Amino acid sequence: MKRVKMIVAYDGTNYCGWQIQNNGITIEEVLNKTLTDLLKEPVTVIGASRTDSGVHSEGNVAVFDTENRMPADKICFALNQRLPEDIRVLHSEEVAPDYHPRKQNCVKTYEYKIMNRKIEVPTMRLYSHFCYYPLDVDKMREGGAYLVGEHDFKSFCTARGQAEDTVRTIYSLDIEKTGDLIIIRVRGSGFLYNMVRIIAGTLMKVGMGVYPPSHVEEILDARERNAAGPKAAAKGLTLIRLDYEKELEKEIHGENKKWSYTLCQDRIISEGNAWLTIHRCDEEDFERLLIRVVHQAVRNGARKVFVRDEEKAGRIVLGKPYGFYVFRIDDENELWYVTQK
Description:
The chain has 341 residues and is an alpha+beta fold. It is 22% helix and 35% strand.
């Protein structure tokens, strides 16, 4: 048995997104069926990013397991001969048996294209959002700058009906204009449901003059979906690539006006220990920050996470007074509990 990693590109126009659904054909369904036919065994792919209906990709990542003896690097060529012309596997290779595309630290890059002119260009209609109203790109850039960094993006996601941590990090948000085409390029640690499309819809409102650029910060602070702009059309969105972390960062620093912390990971590999120092944090965000960053350290391999709060001792966390705690990971590597040091 071997695990094969693929880089998958597709035109999402004719598909109901990546993930298998009852209401139409999906990318995952086509890959499963085609790989099963090719390798003569049941195959189920696991995708890194479950893109929505109509969204495109130049570099999604997926893995599958197979007992077939075909070399992993040759599978892409054989598979592409059987796939429809709007789906292509750009690369395939064997990876470690425990490699999982959604459980690795990575940076995702998305682009949102806007055709900004009086009359739509037919050849761009499937791959860009058409906007008749003139957009001020400089104002859009000014508004977009408020989104860079680690923030709670609850205002910029569509609720799925289940609890989900809504803090994400945007490393860069660039907007360029070439002729009538405006491209919003966003790089981040991960994205919430519809997050990039809502960002695009909000920044278009800024470009139209409906919102001043500073209103983007107010939208972030509101943490309410109805505070942000509309969700832009799916056809303008393309997943460009996923860049996976090759070695563990020694130190992670998160900061905005609500909180500031440092997570030291330089001894995770050698000792299984990590140190979290919370420099400051609003009371309403403290417990969520603590749980989120401890879990991040655990995902990165920590067995113990030592936590120090520089700002306020004696907080109530998980129903207990909080001072200096050690978070220990249990033998199942799934749960964690708290003991005071």
